[in-house]
Predict the structure of Very-long-chain (3R)-3-hydroxyacyl-CoA dehydratase.
Amino acid sequence: MVFSCVCRYRKNTYLFIYYLIQFCGHSWIFANMTVRFFSFGEDSMVDTFYAIGLVMRLCQSLSLLELLHIYVGIEPSRLLPRFLQLTERIIILFVVITSQEEVQEKYVVCVLFIFWNLLDMVRYTYSMLSVIGIAYAVLTWLSQTLWMPIYPLCVLAEAFAIYQSLPYFESFGTYSTKLPFDLAIYFPYVLKLYLMMLFIGKWLFCLVSAFFLCFLVSAAIYLSRQVCKHGRDRKGSLA
């Protein structure tokens, strides 16, 4: 009994510190981007990666620990969706953006970082407070619904970043490798295949989201009708 309480306390303390570090990192990124935009205007979007790229890479690298959290059972989440999300971000950030200096100056990098940080600030705030037993209705609603409009926009921004990086990968031959036999790894083809997979996943996500939204609307209409019917029946019985 005492041992289990101690283990639970240590687990919650570790998770709280982890979520707090991630929240502080992403909040600093978002605040830095906001202040720089109001100070320098559109010019701040060009050098977004140079100003906050290091902190963004640290936060995304640290987020790989979440796979271990889920695997050992200290974080209640599903492994496959989180693995796919982290893999998607690692590929875009480290493979596409970091490797091509010309891509780092594109506006889409700033837009993509804004979307990522909006999602992560809400998610890590909600997770951090949940560990210590604090819940706010607005924050819970945001953590469960904000991703629905933001995630498709993230996918579009990621796809546009890949599209803009293709000419540079083709010109510089980054990651393209000549094999000993009559084959070669031409990395732009790999990116085009990944781009196609992103759009397929986006359309599947939209279909699932539309079905879920229709279900919620139908349930709300049904419940409202039941409440109205119950109210009329109650008034009739009182009369």
Summary: The chain has one domain: 2-197. The beta strands are 177-178, 184-185.
